[in-house]
Each structure stands twice: as C-alpha cells, then as structure tokens.
C-alpha cells in the first residue's frame, strides 16, 4: 500500500518537473524569436526588404553599345566611374595610385538616358546595381527608414563593387526647410552619414549615382556629396541619327535607311525616349498597312 503511494507521488513529481522544463524551453525560444525580430536591424528583415532592388550584372540587359549619343557623358563616366569600378584595387585602396569619387549626379531633361546610362555602366563594370524605390526606403514606423538606409549601404558593401542608383532623387532628398518633417530630416541625415563614409569603409568599391530633372531642388548637403555632376542633355542631329539607327538595327537595311530621316531637323528637341516612341509609331503604321485586306480595312480579330 505504502509503496503504491510513493510510486504515484514520484510519477507526479517527474511529470511536474518535465512540464516545467518544457514550458521554460518554449518560453526561451519565443523570447529569442521576439527579441530577434525587434532588434533585427540591417542584416535580417531590412535586408530582405531590399532584395527586389538588387540587380545582378547578368540580369542587366543594357550595355554602353545600346546607349545612343552621349559621347561626352560616356567619356567622363569612363574615366571617373567605369575604370575605378573595373579596377577597384587601383582606386579604392589607401595605397592605390589614383583616387575615385564616390558620388555622381546625372542631370538633364526626362527621357535622355540617365537611367539607361547608369545600368549600362554597371553592366560594363560587371558590378551589382542597387536601385531602391521610395516605397522601399520609406516606412510608416519611426526609425525603420533609417535602418533601411543602413541595410542599403550594408548590402552594397557586401556586394562590392556596386552602384547605388537613386532615380528622381529630388523626390526623397529635397532641400531642407522649416516645413521639412522630422522623418524626412532623419532619413536625409542618415543617408548623408553613410555617404560621408562614417559607416562605409573607404577601401570598398561602393559608389552612389543620383539622377534628377531638378538639381536645384536637391538638398545642398547631398549635392556636395555627389560632386561629379554630368549633364545629360537633349541629343543633337548626329546623336539623334545614332539613336534611331540603334532603335531600328534589327530592321532590313532598306527599311533602316528610311528611318534615318527621323534624325533630321524635324525631330529637333526630341529626347532619346521620344525618338524610340517615334520609331514604334512608324512601325505601327507599317504594320497597319501590311494587315489591310483587299478592301482597305483591317481584318477583324
């Protein structure tokens, strides 16, 4: 009788201790997961938010051969950006024989090839192209945007040589004023801090390229950190002909010769994007003519 009581008591004690240990282990695991999510910062969910902004060199379809005109801009970028990224040990080392700028600003009217040129440089240099959107960097939670900026530069450092490309950068980093919100001010300050190299090793081949149609709207502190300003203007007559030839390079030679007229004075003031759209419009007219039946009407779908 007494032995049965002691056996029951022992079983109850063992069960109590077992469930206590299991509860403590579960609580510790949950606490670890919660703290990891709360203190994750760059390197976890913030890096994951930037995955869509990272373009590997093999995923970039544009090359410098696809960029029509812009001869002076290409020459400037070749010396100040393409060579340093292609040979980082010569330009991004303290003992290197040359020094390289880390900030570039492409300015000019829309549709003149600023974004295409930046992608082509990344492709030619075989470096990573990181182009975050505003929705990627801005968060409704206070402090998250600054962490995303840190993750942006951290991603660029780990994938160096790399280019951080800020398209329409005046939208995110406008000149500060009394009406600037605290969140916008903090975001700009965080970005400037990283651009200053306070959290970026000077031996890492990471450069930042901004593109804007309104350089005067940029904050002066950001313009100073993007010291190499390259004007991407409207193409002249020879450049327009070059752009049109690139647009219709897959056409038969006889058809291409006809499209060359798009580069004459009648297209003065058009951007490269406008010329590509003119080519597409001409192609649609030709397609319409080919599809007309004997009665002069397009066939029904």
Could you characterize the architecture of this molecule?
By secondary structure, this protein is of the alpha/beta class. The protein has helices at residues 2-38, 45-49, 71-86, 88-91, 114-125, 134-137, 144-158, 182-195, 220-225, 237-247, 253-259, 272-291; strands at 54-55, 103-107, 128-130, 162-167, 206-212, 228-231. Strands 1-3-4-5-2-6 form a six-stranded mixed beta sheet. α7 runs parallel beside α8. It is elongated, with a radius of gyration of 29 Å. The termini are far apart. Residues 33-42 have low confidence and may be disordered.
Count of strand segments? 6
Number of DSSP helices?
Answer: 12
Whole-number radius of gyration? 29 Å
Shape assignment = elongated
What helical percentage do the residues reach? 40-55%
Largest sheet: number of strands, sense, barrel closure? 6 strands, mixed
Order of H and E elements: HHEHHEHEHHEHEHEHHH
| Strand percentage | 5-15%
**What is the straight-line distance between the termini?**
94 Å
- The strand line-up of the biggest sheet is 1-3-4-5-2-6
Mean model confidence by pLDDT? 78
Task: List low-pLDDT spans.
Answer: 33-42
Look at the helices and sheets and give the structural class: alpha/beta
């Amino acid at each position: 009788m007494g032995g049965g009581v002691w056996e029951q008591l022992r079983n109850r004690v063992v069960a109590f201790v077992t469930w206590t240990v299991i509860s403590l282990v579960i609580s510790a695991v949950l606490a670890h997961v919660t703290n990891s999510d709360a203190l994750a910062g760059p390197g976890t969910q913030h890096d994951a938010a930037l995955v869509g902004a990272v373009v590997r060199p093999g995923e970039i379809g544009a090359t410098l051969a696809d960029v029509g005109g812009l001869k002076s801009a290409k020459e400037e970028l070749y010396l100040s950006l393409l060579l340093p990224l292609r040979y980082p040990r010569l330009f991004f080392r303290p003992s290197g024989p040359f020094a390289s700028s880390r900030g570039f600003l492409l300015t000019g009217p829309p549709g003149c090839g600023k974004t295409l040129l930046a992608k082509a440089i990344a492709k030619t240099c075989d470096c990573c192209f990181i182009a975050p959107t505003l929705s990627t960097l801005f968060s409704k939670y206070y402090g998250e945007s600054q962490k995303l900026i840190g993750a942006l530069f951290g991603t660029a450092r780990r994938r160096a040589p790399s280019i951080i490309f800020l398209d329409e950068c005046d939208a995110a980093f406008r000149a500060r004023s009394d009406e600037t919100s605290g969140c916008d001010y903090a975001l700009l300050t965080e970005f400037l801090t990283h651009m200053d190299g306070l959290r970026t090793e000077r031996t890492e081949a990471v450069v930042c390229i901004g593109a804007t149609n309104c350089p005067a709207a940029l904050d002066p502190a950001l313009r100073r950190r993007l010291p190499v300003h390259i004007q991407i203007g409207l193409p002249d007559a020879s450049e327009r002909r070059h752009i049109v030839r690139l647009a219709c390079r897959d056409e038969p030679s006889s058809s291409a010769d006809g499209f060359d007229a798009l580069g004459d004075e009648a297209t003065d003031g058009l951007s490269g994007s406008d010329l590509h759209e003119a080519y597409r419009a001409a192609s649609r007219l030709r397609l319409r003519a080919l599809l007309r039946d004997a009665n002069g009407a397009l066939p029904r779908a």
